[in-house]
Every structure is written in structure tokens, then in C-alpha cells.
Amino acid sequence: MSARPIATTRSAAGIPTARLAVWWIIASEIVIFGGILGSYIMHRMAHGIWADYAANTNTMVGATNTFVLLTSSLFAVLAHQAAERGDGKRAAKLLYMTCGGGAVFLCIKAFEWNYEISHGMTISSNTFWSFYYLAAGVHAAHIIAGCIIMLFVAQTAKRNEELHRVEIIGVYWHFVDIVWIFLFPLLYIAK
Amino acid sequence: MSDHAEHNDSFYIKTWAILLVLLIISVLGPEVGIQWVTLVTAFGIAIVKAYLVAVRFMHINATPRFVVYFVSTALVFMLLFFAGTAPDVMKSSGTNWEKPAWIAADIEYEKNRGAHADGHGDAGHH
User: Fold this and answer.
1) What is the model's pLDDT at position B111?
2) Nearest Cα to B28, choosing from B40, B18, B16?
């Protein structure tokens, strides 16, 4: 029998340790993203000129990215359901598809940023663009981290091992999706 | 395994479809050209979408109450941060204080720089 981390075999306060941990992470991430977005909102309201800068973001690209993330969230929750039924292979396949959604999101963002940077809208252009690249960049870093973890979880899920991890990474992924749900109107719609 | 109520896959696919419809509405909202409609369709719908993802995908309603409490605490602290710092950013003066002249000048400079840009974000030339 392989060794298991002690945390996996016990729970406190009526909730499995891993699930408690991921919600704790989400609470701290709320403060991080909340700080960034809160700062953006107050500066945006104080600087009317930012509406002109924001006019240069591409709403359809943002909407496409929102569609991609919502769809990847669907795959993540379906992976969880497969894991619940003990179907590790299906859960792994759906996690790979979720990760694929993350990769598509990052590719679209890369093309988008390439266009904006090549047209002079860089992180140092003005404070609006600083916020834009910071918020979207920190979000993209969370996507990358989530994809990497998801690949590890999928590898073990394929062997029908540690299936509880599928739910955990799914919860994290849904939070990253929620952050984008708020980023999209702030950066792409409010112009 | 998880102890929350299970749904079949069609429940989640229906939720996804609802989210897509809400996304389309939020994209079309600004086309109406009325500011309050844009705000409602953009941010109101964002809140609804976030709620749907949190409840239906994350199953937050199936977690113990204290989880909801400490996640809500994080949200409250975020709002406290906003409330505590927003007046400094958004107002130019208050009781016993006013913004230094150099900040007001900076805002004016940024406004003028934006007015001279030909519709694009500033090219970053200094």
C-alpha cells in the first residue's frame, strides 16, 4: 500500500481537509483579486479619460475568452461528476479538455496582447494599461498554475487514484472563471 | 467521496447554456446605448453568472456554513479596503485635507495626453 499524506486520511470540522484548504485558498485569492479590481474601479471612476483608453480593448475577443472559460468550467464540473461515479478515465479526459480550454484562453490572450503592444498600448503607457496588464496578467498566471496542477491530477485520476483531487482542482478552476466573469465587464464592456 | 447532492450531466449543461445566454445579453447590452442598461447588463449579469458558477459548479451551498462565512469575510474585507481608500482616490479634498498640487497636475497632464492621442492608448513615448 502506498503512503498517503496524513491530511488525506482525516478531516476537521466536518469537511475533507483538501476541500477546506481549497476554499481557504479561494478566500485569500478574493482579497488579492478584490484588491486589484477594487483599485481599478476607484481609479476608473476618478479618471474619466480611462473610458477613452478602455475603448481600445476588443469586446469580442473578451467575450470569446469568456465563452472559452465558461465551457472549460463545464468540463471541470463534468470531470467532478465522473470522479464521483468512480470513472477515473472519463474524469481525466474531461480534465484534459478543461486544460485545453485554458490553453485556448492563453493563446487568444497572447494574440490580443501582441496586437495591443505592437500598437503602442503597453504596460507603461498609462495607469489604465498598467491595471489592464496587471489584472489580466495575474489572472493568466492563475490559469497557467491551474492547468499545470490539473495535468498532474488527471495523470493520477486516469489510474482511478486520488479521485477526490478532481473536485478540488475543479473548485479552484471555477474560481478563476468567476474572476474573469468580473474582469470581462470591467475591462471590455465598461467603455 | 463528496457528500453533496449529485446532479446528472444535463443539469450542468443546462447551467452552461444559461451562462452563455447571459454572456450574450451582457455583450449586447451596451448596444442599446443607455448607460444604466449597460451597467445592469454588464455588472448585474456578472453577479448572476458568478452566483450560478458558485452555487451550481462549486457547490458552495453544500459546504459547511463556516466555509461560507470565511469566504464572505474575505469579501467584506475587500469592500472595507475599497471604502477606506476610495475617498482618497476619487475626491480632490475633504475634511482637513486636499490633494497636493502635483497630483492634481498629474491628473491634468494625463487628461491632456489622452486628448492628444489619436484614439489609441498612449504610445508610451516620454
Assistant:
1) 61
2) B40
Cβ–Cβ under 8 Å, residues B29 and B38: yes
Q: What is the Cα–Cα distance from A138 to A131, expressed in whole angstroms? A: 10
Average pLDDT, chain A: 93
Give dist(CA A38, CA B96) in Å, integer. 25
Cross-chain residue pair A53–B121, CB shorter than 8 Å: yes
Q: A41 vs A78, A127, B29, B35, B44, CA distance in Å? A: 34, 12, 20, 16, 15
Could you tell me the CATH superfamily of domain A15-189?
Cytochrome c oxidase, subunit III, four-helix bundle (1.20.120.80)
* Interchain CB distance below 8 Å, A181 and B50: yes
How many angstroms separate the CA atoms of A163 and A54, rounded? 43
- The interface predicted TM-score of the complex, written ipTM, equals 0.91
CB-based contact B121 A120, cutoff 8 Å: yes
CA angle A45, B72, B40 (to 5 degrees): 40
Task: Encode pLDDT of B39-59 as tens digits.
Answer: 899 999 999 999 999 999 999
Q: Full-prediction pTM beyond 0.80?
A: yes
Residue of B26, B57, B63, B99 to mutate when probing chain A, most A C-beta within 10 A: B57
Alpha helices by DSSP H, chain A? 17-46, 50-54, 59-84, 88-118, 127-157, 164-184
Cβ contacts from A onto B, under 8 A: 171
How far are the Cα atoms of A90, A177, B15, B56 from residue B49, in angstroms, in the given order?
27, 10, 10, 10
What are the boundaries of each domain within chain A?
15-189
